[in-house]
Task: structure prediction
Amino acid sequence: MNFVNGFMLGGVALITVPIVLHLVMRQQPKQLMFPALRFILQREESNRRRMRFRHWLLLLARCLVIALLAAALARPSIRPEGVDSLLMILGVGVLLAIAALGLALAWAYQRNRTLLISLALLTVGLLLSGSILLARWFGRLDELILGGRDVPVAAALVFDTSPRMTYRYENQTRLEAARAFGAWVTTKLPAESEVAVLDSRSDSAAFAVDRGAAQKRIEQLSPTPAAIELPAVIAAAVERVAESDRQRKEVYVFTDLTEVAWRESNARELRRRLDENPEVQLYVVDLGVEKPTNSRLGDIRSFDETFVGSERLKLSVDLYQIGPGGPRTIELRLFDQQLEGFALDKPDDRPSTVRGRKIVDAAAQRPTRITFDLKLPRIGTHQGYLTIAEDDGLPADNIRYFTVDVRKPWRVLVAAPPPHDDYSWYLTEALSPPLDEELQRFQFTSVDLAELSRMKLSELTEYAAICLLDPRPLSDETWNRLTDYAAAGQGRSVALMMGREAISSNGLPHPSFNSKAAQDLLPAPLKLRLIVARPGVQLVTEQFGHPLLEPLRTEQAATIPWREMPIFRYWQLGPLNHGAQTVVAYSNGDPAIVERSVGNGRSLLMTTPITDELSDRRHWNRLPTGENVWPYIALMDGMMLYMVGSGNDRLNYFAGETAVIPLGSSRQTVSIKTPLGGDASPLRIDVDGAVRFTSTDLSGTYLLRAGGTENALVRGFSVNDRSEATRLDRLDKKRLDELLGDREYTLARSQQQIVRSVSKGRVGIKLYPWILLLLAVVLGGEHLLANLFYRKHGGR
Amino acid sequence: MSVEKYLKPEVIRQISRLDLRARFIVKGFFQGLHASPFHGFSVEFSEHRKYTAGDNPDEIDWLVYAKTDKYYIKKFEAETNITGYLVMDLSCSMAYTYRGELTKFEYCICLAAALSYLMVQQQDPVGLVTFGEKISACVPPKAKRAQLGNLLSVLSKLEPAGPTDIAGSLTQLAAMLRHRSLVMLFTDLLADPDPVIQSLRRLRHAGHDVILFHVLDAAEVNFPFDGLVEFEEPESQQRIKVDATGFRTTYRAEVAAFRQRYHRECFKSGVDYIPLDTAMPFDRALTEYLLTRKARC
Result:
């Protein structure tokens, strides 16, 4: 409750005047002789009670007149949410007054016991209810007190600064409109108010030093690609103003009121905060456009970021349209200078060449998919972007950057018992068919096991992976070297496909495989060779989500014909070593492929070989020799890609994600050129040389240089806004009501609406006219009572 | 102007001479009887007229027939005399008037004078008894013309003052009266009713006819006061503050109950109870007298 002239409430003290008058200056009655006094004397008691009652009633009316007059002059007002309670209290008060009056009348005039008791019970009941309501109302009085129009407030201004807000309408972006509106709001806040300015960048809030500082902060607001969801920011703002000791608390939200800005995920937290702090007034300023028109490129669909030069780059993207559609030109551009762009101020300023152009008809009903397919002959990093050639209101979502790495085929060392070429045939033939060079992602080097034992670690590290096919026992030295190889590199792996060569003379596994040196590398010790009766067991891959199985995740994944490739013999394993896990199992539950992390790399153990020929009567399986071998090829392909760590290098990120760029070796000096220009430092450089960079707020292409000017390693990556973040579909009022729960809030589109609503919120509902009305009624009642009691004797 | 106006107290008040008051009241009363059911009770003139077909043969005056050999109807001739006592209450409460018009006592005097006039006209012996705490004056009943003058002379000199003992005085009166008489009691009955009723019964038991003229001031009946009033009882000087406006209904109910009680008790005892107030015309009292007289004839 708020009083314009609070001091006038002191006038309530004047009710002592009628009380004193009542007690001290009793009215002098008219003196009359009257012989028939006996008739009066017989009813003297009731007469006395009646007179007392009337006197008190009159006194009450007069006190009420003064109190109401003082209250009216104080010009009170109340928050709208307090009105319901007040009306209820007034209603109970009126009922109580009626019941009390009835009780008093019954006491003064009637002696009906039943009536008296009933009225007394009713009065007590109403008195209790009224007291409870009043106590609750007074309990909430702090919330209901507003403190006058000019009393300082605690205000938080929440700006949606997502890229959507750069939508230009009537030559003004939504953010510019929000800035102007917000600046205006700060000018309207009472002096000494606390103002906090929040945007989508962070959900932490602090009050500005003064209003000028807040206005400066508003002027500096800029679009935030990695925008935090708006309800989370509002919740933080509500919490911040709620902590303030200012009586009035206001939160202004400047938003384009789109569906994506108001997601349900954080709304529950916001509702909780609002419920906890009912004194906080929420004003939602809708700066959105009712019927926007915009073309939007979706996120570039999953593509190979790192591929061998012989492959083709395939990019596909969806074009979304809101509002009237039409023909749109989508271009694929590649920067001419790739990593040389580091010399330029901004990487995106590099000249680019159109490498693909498609004209499509954008329709609002459904997205249009556009696919580009081109060959990138040059080995190295390529950066470019997809763009909509036509301008529209929201340019931020018309461009999607990409970075791809074209590299030479991965070198894989295959070691096998002699004749090693024969042993490795099923592997090399499946993954690197000599007839089709374009499909060669791997360059296999086949060596004898003895030769492997002689190779130095430096020689081994030239290979991206080492594959041991049906290995014979190795020396501890060789095991140790292989372990060092795996542990040192990024994603380097050693794979062993165990076969009959591991069987010792007593039929058990050779001790070399279970030696300590071997177990430092291998995921598990070999237990015994198991021979499964026909029709054997088969691989089970459906329920495993390992990246190794990525090539098998096709539309026919549920019907992979593993049954046609039965396994009759395999090595049963002992307990898995620390850090090991089963990747693929047999249908009887025993592990088929087991993986273990070794330092920065990993080792894989396949418990059945891929080297048995069909003609061999004691062949262990028919994996490479089955009738339908495509699952085998896909499995090997996935295994090799996993081993060489092809999926490790992410070159395309969404804004806000931490970019991890492996450099191959530890470099001390690393600098990163961002789309804004200027060099930035990475957050952290890992021991293995991987660079972690968190300041990926801006969409665009980034360049990274490690080492000195000479022999510098330059790499790049791209950052894009999430396409979903620029959806302009409007949120309707009903949905907003649901999101904010039962909470009262003000949705405004104009400054006038805010003025009206804020005025009502700050000043509340004026009770002045109602009190005056009540005063008139009480005054009339007092006059009537006074006339009734003290009427002169008919003027005679 | 019609003489009926003299039945109104406010008109009579303007006449100072008591004999004139009595005469005017009686004249006004008889004037008003023309259309009343009391026609036939006029005793002022006795007359004869010729018998015509349709007359009641019982009313033929056979003495006149014997003398004149003609049928005459005897009209309004009194046959017996009733001894009447006008008993006046002299308590000081009888001197009360709220409007400043006729006091209760003056009203009673007027009534008594009118009745005296009427009775003397009919050759009925009439006497006067006044009482305060006990019987204070007594004019023996006579039927002579001169009696009227005596009575009016005494009545005009009476002054109400002091306390009263209605019951005691009535008991004393009952002991005084030798013959069956008509006792016409003028009082405001502002005393404990039980002894008064007892005394009335005693009078009746002695064979007297009693007409109780209960005269109150109009203000005592209607309670026309408003606002806060402090009342003082003139006899005991007792005071009480009253919210008069709110108390009016209660007061009226109380007075009605009081009158009702007297009415009930008098009816049981055979006493004629006539509640009057000073604003009422006088004919009510005269009518009552005539009714009683008729019953006795």
